[in-house]
Write a structure and sequence with these properties.
- The structure is a single chain.
- This protein has 372 residues and is α+β, with helices and mostly antiparallel strands.
- Helix content is 52%, strand content 19%.
- It contains 5 helices and 8 strands; from the N terminus they run αββββββββαααα.
- Strands 1, 2, 3 and 4 form a 4-stranded antiparallel sheet that branches. The protein has a 4-stranded antiparallel sheet with strand order 6-5-7-8, with no helix packed on it.
- α4 runs antiparallel to α5.
- It is rod-shaped and about 190 Å long.
Length: 372
Amino acid sequence: MVELVTGTAGKNHVSSADFGSYNAGIIGEGAYILPRGKRLSCEKVSDNLVKVNDGDMVFKGRHIRIEPEDYEELTIENGASGTKRHDLICIRVEKNEDTQIETASFVVVKGEFADSPVDPEYTKGTILENDYLVDEYPICRVVLNGLQIKSVTMLISEISSISKLLEHMRNLDDRKADKASTNNAINELEDKKANATETNAAISELINSVSSLTVSKAEQTAVEALSASVNELSESKATQVELDALEDTVKGKAEQTELKALSDRVDNLASLGEDATEGNLELLDIRTGADGTVYSSAGEAVRTQFKNMDAKLDEVDKQIENLTETATTTDTTLNGSKASIAKINAVRGKSEQKSFTGKQLLNASGLNEITD
C-alpha cells in the first residue's frame, strides 16, 4: 500500500521504519560515523574502563547520538595474567516484542582468553526488514594483554557530509581541470620533443654540411697542391727551355769559333808562300788558336788555349750546377727535368770531348813539350 510519509494524514502515521528507510537510502545500509562532535571516539580511562565520547552515527538507517559534552562509560572485565583477550564495544538496537518500543545502547561483547585471541561474535539482525529484536555493530576493539588494556582501536568508518561531498566534487573538477592542464602541458612537451627531434635532425644535417665543407676544403687543398705542382712543372719546363737555348748557344758558339779558327789557319798558312816546308807549316798551324787567334809561338798558343779552355770549362760547370740545383728543387721524378739534366751532361761531355781531342792532337804532333 502506498503511504505519503511526509504529508499530512490527520493522524500520527510517520514511523521509525519510515525514517530509517529514508536515511538508509541516502546514507547507506551499513553503520557510519557522521562528521559531528567527537565522532563517538573511544578511549581508555583505566584497565577496566573505556569511554565513548559524543557524536552521531547512522546504523541501518537509524540515527543514534550522544549529545555534545556527554559520554558513555563501559566497564571492561579484568584480564588474566599470561593470556590475552579481545573485547568489542558495539552499538545495539533492540525492539521490545510486546510494546514494539525500540532502544539503542553501547554494550561490551566479551571475547575469549587465548594466546592468539580473535574478535568475539556479535548479533546481526535485520532492522530494515522491521522484523528484528536485536541488531548489533562493533565501533571499537579493546585489546587486553594480561591484566592491562593495551589498545583501543576504532572499527567504524566516518562518512562525509553532503557539503563536503560537494567540495570534494569541486576539488575533483579542479583536479580534472588540472589534469587537462597537465595533459596540455604533456602535449606541449610532446610538441617540444618533436621540435627537438627536428632540431636534432637539422643539427645532424648541419654537421653533415660542415663535414662536406671540410671535404671541400680538403679538395681545395688538394687542388692548390696540384696547382703548385703544375707551377713547378711550368718552372721545370722553363728550365728545360733555358737548357735547350744554352745548348743551342753552345753549339752555335762552337761552330762559329771553329769556322773562324779554320779561316785564320788557312790565311796563316797561305802567307808562307812556296818556300814553306812541311815542318814549318805544322808549327805555324799550331800557333793559330782554336778561336783564330795567332800567337807568337806554338808553345804560347798551346798554353794560353789550355788556360782559356780551363776557365771556360769552370764557367760552364758553374752554370751547369746552377741549372741542376734549379731542376732538383722541382719534382726530381719529372721527365722534363731528367731530360734537361741529360742534355746538360751531353753538352758537358761534348766540351770534355773537344778538350780531349785537342790533347790528342798535340800528342800526335809531338809538340806537347814545345816551349817559347
